[in-house]
Amino acid sequence: MPESTPSEAAPADFETSSDLHTDLDRSVQQLLLDERPSIPPRFLYDELGSRLFEVITALPDYYPTRTEAALLESSIADILAARPVAGSTMIDLGAGNCAKAAALFEHARPAHYVAVDVSADFLEQALSQLRPRFPDIEMTGVGTDFSQLLDLPAGIAADPRLFFYPGSSIGNFSRSEAIEFLKSVRAAMGPESTLWITADLDKDPAVLERAYDDELGVTAAFNRNVLLHLNRVAKTDFELADWRHVAHYDRAAMRIQMHLETIRATTVHWPGGERRFAKGDRLHTENSHKYTVESFSELLAIAGLRTVEHWTAPEDWMGFFVAAPA
Ligand SMILES: C[S@@+](CC[C@H](N)C(=O)[O-])C[C@H]1O[C@@H](n2cnc3c(N)ncnc32)[C@H](O)[C@@H]1O
After folding, report:
1. Is the model's pLDDT at 19 over the cut of 90?
2. Mean of the pLDDT values across residues 115-128?
3. Which stretch of 64-68, 107-111, 230-234 has the lowest confidence by average pLDDT?
4. Which of 41, 15, 193 is nearest to 114 (CA)?
5. CA of 117 to the centre of ligand 1 (A)
6. Distance (Å, rounded) from C-alpha 218 to C-alpha 236?
């Protein structure tokens, strides 16, 4: 865990982990050869993917962003009363355009804002626009894949930290991955540190499927863009016209599953390999797990975190949890 000591230099304005692109082509190509081929969801977020996600958050069908915003607005006083966070280092996990954290600065009053995201160019642009608006808050950007390692810059204060993980992004991990990830967050928290995290709750499948397959087709574009990203970074030759977006709620597994499905037989090539797909074959691109308040609190507990308090939105669509080291 990075510790701040007087002799340590302050972190740079922006750091990109050296292994962000290492072995990318080989690992992705290997996954494409699996019996059930998949693409890690972080590949949804190149610069265009991050812009498309911003548009998704404005869609009438995409309830999570507006539901979470309403929940935070109505509960912020209670959230702040549940556990003090002023003066913390606020660490925004999957910060995207940093808008959610920025909207909370006046309440959370962080001393230092550390924004972490795999979409490094997009994050760097967002931070450069944010700095002049909040000259009193030190800001550091970190371009890294935190599913591999929660790699925080040396020189940031060890405690108190406020980890902020909104948007129900924890749902993109499987249960075991989520536990491992939460354990890594727990390991980076001191006794006075806090986690603010949103979990999406189980609900009517029709509401869920509309949110992940909107009428304007923006989520379809977001999903299909992963192929353009792979063509660039993994040197594949996916043809966009061969693939369509599919989103389905698996009630038993309590998760939305996003796939890309071939509309005709096609072969994808890359240097040294290829994969033939028959018509109707699928590539798995993302899961979005849904929880109950109980199942999510249990997940936190397994990772060594106690739920200080939680709030649910109207109709219990989403849950916001304040957690602390157990
Ligand atoms: C669902 S978006 C949420 C964005 C924003 N926090 C919000 O709530 O609207 C997920 C964000 O996490 C980032 N992300 C996804 N996988 C990641 C990974 N493995 N490591 C780091 N960032 C990741 C994406 O680039 C994206 O900005």
Report:
1. no
2. 97
3. 230-234
4. 15
5. 6
6. 23
